[in-house]
Amino acid sequence: MFDLPELTVIAAQMNDVLPGLVVAAGTIGVSPHRFVWYDREPEEFAALTAGLRVGRAWAEGKWLFVPLEPGRVLLIGEWGGRIRYHADAADLPAKRHLDLTFTTGAALSATTQMWGGVHLVEAGREREVKYVKEMRPTPLDERFDRAYFGELVAAAGEDGRRSVKGLLTQEQLIPGLGNAIAQDIMARARLHPRRPLSTLDEVQLEGLYEAITETVRAVIAAGGRSDERDLFGHPGGYARLMDARAVGRPCVTCGTPVEKISYLGGACYFCPACQT
Ligand SMILES: [Zn+2]
User: How many angstroms separate the alpha carbon of residue 183 from the centre of ligand 1?
Assistant: First the structure.
């Protein structure tokens, strides 16, 4: 699943190769998939995209926005798979859920192994799409400052039950984070996944805030996680601190073997000594 850092990297890579390209044909529904949600029929998508010119893309939360000018924005959201540029459209994968071929002969494809949404909306209305509309500030948003974070944690932890992992992975409280990046954030913040938010002191809150913003920026700087691939098919350079391979290995800080638990719909990898 692409998180905010991977999509930020892909958007930047798109902006190196796509702006100015003119769509020869836009295609959806090549490979039927129960869990890809389209807001257009294939014929409509083809008719609306032909002849449009690609603008500068951006990422927000788990959504990628690609302007098709004039007048449209293509949204690819909650995507777990591949988003690829092909210098030659002959290299399009057989299995794909979206593709744009360009008049130059190049192409863009998107294929999901999990689920995803593809929307083609009028420019200016991209923020009206469900999930985008309600999106809270992401860790890259200037509104995501320490004061905002304090209020977010206070509200999320009000019932006394919400945990650190819950803050990082539930209900898009912090848009663009997922289970994978959450592991490293919790390791950096030295907090146990089950730790109730209501029990964090100021120093721990500060540490959690720093861990979120630093981890997101570190993954972007490295070109994404090494278990995901970028627009050109290359794995990212960010090796996770805490993943399945870390289980049983000594914690890099204290040497205690890393443990695994299942919690809140996914595995957690953590150091039982450092993360409390
Ligand atoms: Zn440790």
Answer: 13
Spacing, Cα 250 to ligand 1 middle (Å): 8
Distance CA 114, CA 134 (A): 23
**129 alpha carbon – ligand 1 mean position (Å):** 42
Per residue of the chain (276 residues), what is the pLDDT tens digit? 899 999 999 999 999 999 999 999 999 988 888 789 999 999 999 999 999 999 999 999 999 999 999 999 999 999 988 999 999 999 999 999 999 999 999 999 999 988 899 999 999 999 999 889 989 999 999 999 999 999 999 999 998 899 999 999 998 999 999 999 999 999 999 999 999 999 999 999 999 999 999 999 999 999 999 999 999 999 999 999 999 999 999 998 999 999 999 999 889 999 999 999
Residue 139 within a domain = no
By residue range, what is the domain housing residue 48?
4-128
Pairing of strands 98-102, 267-270: unpaired
Ligand 1 ion: nearby residues, β-carbon < 5 Å = 251, 253-254, 256, 271, 273-274
Q: What is the DSSP string of 125-174?
A: -GGGSTTTTTPPPPTTSTT--HHHHHHHHHHHTTTS--BHHHHHHSTTSS
Residue 178 located in a structural domain: yes
How far does the centroid of ligand 1 lie from the alpha carbon of residue 253, in Å?
A: 5
Separation of 121 CA from ligand 1 center, angstroms? 48
Q: Tell me, rounded to whole angstroms, the distance of Cα 32 from its chain centroid.
A: 23
Q: Give the number of domains in the chain.
A: 2
> Does residue 136 sit within a domain?
no
Q: What is the ipTM of this complex?
A: 0.99
